[in-house]
Amino acid sequence: MPLSAAERDLLITRAGGCCELCGATTELAASAVAPRPGDSADETILACRTCREALDGIAEPDHRWHCLSESAWSPVPAVQVVAWRQLEQLDTEAWAQDLLEQLYLDEPTMAWVRATADAEPDGAAPVLHRDTFGAVLNSGDTVTLIKDLKVRGANFTAKRGTAVRNISLVPDNPDQIEGRVNDQRIVILTEFVRKLS
């Protein structure tokens, strides 16, 4: 459902007439932030065509997402959700993972981030990742290692007690998560971690 004229005016005013991700001032349009319907300014962002196409997977804009270094700090929850999701997609970019480790989202906003990530097609139950004690792990959680782990392909051992922040879940394998240890992104078996509350 498209925004009403009043909601569109609120969105444009909030954004200052600029793309809320990169700051561009041309070809702007409201973009709903899933899974919300986008019928209010609070559920949408104002984005330029290039950002919208990149978010929709129509275009791959190379280094375009360095703009998130600024927009991720927006006080607007819808912008925070889009920035967080995009930073998680950039899992091979050290700067993006470093930025994720610095960011904090309140519980309702993080629930919005996870809302589409946790949804499964055809009503199937979501794949749950659980730590060694059975606690459900979510993307963005912090875990600690419960034993020393030799990292394959690297010349170090991840030590017991090491905190791994802002983990990512391996979508097709509930026994694996990803995280940064010693500035390297590694895959970790869930049986070797404990979730920090």
Automatic annotation (TrEMBL):
Coiled coil: none
Family annotation (InterPro entries): PhnaA_N_proteobac, YjdM_C
Source organism, top-level taxon: Bacteria
Domain PhnA protein N-terminal proteobacterial: from-to ranges: 10-56
Name by which UniProt lists this protein: PhnA domain protein
Species for this entry: Pannonibacter tanglangensis
Lineage: Bacteria, Pseudomonadati, Pseudomonadota, Alphaproteobacteria, Hyphomicrobiales
